[in-house]
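Structure ticket #2291
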Amino acid sequence: MNKLLIFCFAAIMSCTSTIAQKSEDMQNKAEIVMSESQGGTEQAGFVMIKNEKEFQEAIKSMQGISLVEVGNEPAIKFPAFPIDKKVILYNQGRFNSGDHTIKEIKSISVKDNVLYVEVPMYDSGGMEIQVLSNPWFIFTVPSNYQFNSVQLKYSK
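Resolution: structure written out below.
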């Protein structure tokens, strides 16, 4: 009976340490909060979003939304503002054709005060309709990352 009790205790302890490792790994990854193909600026660049009010204002302005509240209910449900992470709005600039919406962040790193965000390379299917787009996305990085600029790295 004692051996069974010790075995169960060891199994529970090994599970709790695994969960802590997974949550720690999640803290070191970037997460996309929102990504759109239209509404960004003509020039590529980034803005740090410091609080929930700035977060909601950024989403409203990027989507061209003018909201009318009905009673106490907001007209749109905003994603939750990430806590304990840095929130970045990144405008990709102007593209003449194709869907340049960022759907995945492969990895992030900081070198010489530059945040490098590795994203999948956009593959053109050949002939495309010429449509101007200004894609943008909002993503999070760990709060301990220190950087002055953001650069996208495209990879296959």
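Closing remark: The two ends are 55 Å apart (CA to CA).
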